[in-house]
Amino acid sequence: MFALLIIPVINLVAQNKSTVKTAPGNSASILKTLNDSVSYVVGFSVGNSCKQQGITKLNAMLLSKAINDILTGKKTLINDKTANVCMSKYMAGGGNEKINPSTVKPVSILKTLTDSASYAIGMNAGNFYKTMGITKLNTSLVSKSINDILNGKKPLCTNETANIIMNKYMNAEQEEKSKSTIDEGNKFLSQNKLRAGVNTTANGLQYEVMTQGTGAKPVATDSVTCHYRGTLLNGTVFDDSYARGQPITFALNGVIRGWTEGVQLMNVGSKYKFYIPYTLGYGPYDYGNIPGGSMLTFEVELLAVKKPH
Fold it and tell me: What residues does 299 pair with on adjacent strands?
């Protein structure tokens, strides 16, 4: 496929639970669902990408149709080779000229090079978003967003809001895929918190005190040195500093939220057992040998605290 740069506005953060805030105006009445918002964001991304490359005139309806054709598995109106030819001619200065049958076989609804280039760009964008697991979009909102960008209208979202929307959508999709793992973890935690000696924080972190030390307590900006062992719900050990014979030193604000919160409860010399829900761990996404949505158990021994310089 031709090398049109589709710039994703997506910066996936598994634990982003921010509320989606659209731009002032009538956006709330238009973007009624998360899918509507994602559809607008897709057009927002494609429109900005095209504009940055000097493409200012497109048939947004045909671009959106191509995206939908790709996402829904329909046969596209042109193949990749034809799309490349159309884009090359378009970028060389074509536009409203009629399709030349000697170079590109005409398609009834692709009457000009602009039409064909629009459809070709949509094919490229559709393939990109399909790899992200997006399977259905509101094409009218994709078209609206592209037209808003290319016609200089104020869009209904900002880059920041677009990131939040895509994060929420991708998280929701991934949580559905990881549902069985999430449910197993939640079931365990709901029973585990009833055991004597298990404490639960306001964020849902559960912990047991195995050994209570008397040394300094860290804060989030400190670095700490710890020995630890991490296991999945089924008992599989996925990381073990004891087995390596080497404790680890790290910035406390640079790890999963369950660790950042939990280790701050400890004094140097303490050993705690943490039960970390997926929302405070690696979220719904697979992380190395940790399946998405996993509840994690850690035995953690706090050896030292180092203040920042």
Answer: 229, 273
Is residue 267 a contact partner of residue 215, using CB atoms and an 8 Å limit?
yes
- pLDDT tens digits, 104-144: 555 667 888 899 999 999 999 999 999 888 888 999 999 99
In the numeric block, which tokens belong to residue 264?
């701050």
Weakly modelled stretches of the chain, pLDDT under 70: 1-29, 94-108
pLDDT at residue 15, as a whole number: 37
* CA–CA dist 65, 90 (Å, integer): 19
Q: Report d(CA 266, CA 201) in Å as an integer.
A: 14
Q: In the 3-class helix/strand/coil scheme, how is the chain assigned residue by residue?
A: CCCCCCCCCCCCCCCCCCCCCCCCCCHHHHCCCHHHHHHHHHHHHHHHHHHHCCCCCCCHHHHHHHHHHHHCCCCCCCCHHHHHHHHHHHHCCCCCCECCCCCCCCECCECEHHHHHHHHHHHHHHHHHHCCCCCCCCHHHHHHHHHHHHCCCCCCCCHHHHHHHHHHHHHHHHHHHCHHHHHHHHHHHHHHCCCCCCEECCCCCEEEEEECCCCCCCCCCCEEEEEEEEECCCCCEEEEHHHHCCCEEEEHHHCCHHHHHHHCCCCCCCEEEEEECHHHCCCCCCECCECCCCCEEEEEEEEEEECCC
Residue 87 has what pLDDT? 87
The class level of CATH for 179-306 reads: alpha beta
- How much is the pLDDT for 16? 38
Where in the sequence of the chain do the CATH 3.10.50.40 domains occur? Answer: 179-306
Residue-level length of the chain: 309
Task: List the beta bridge partners of residue 112.
Answer: 98
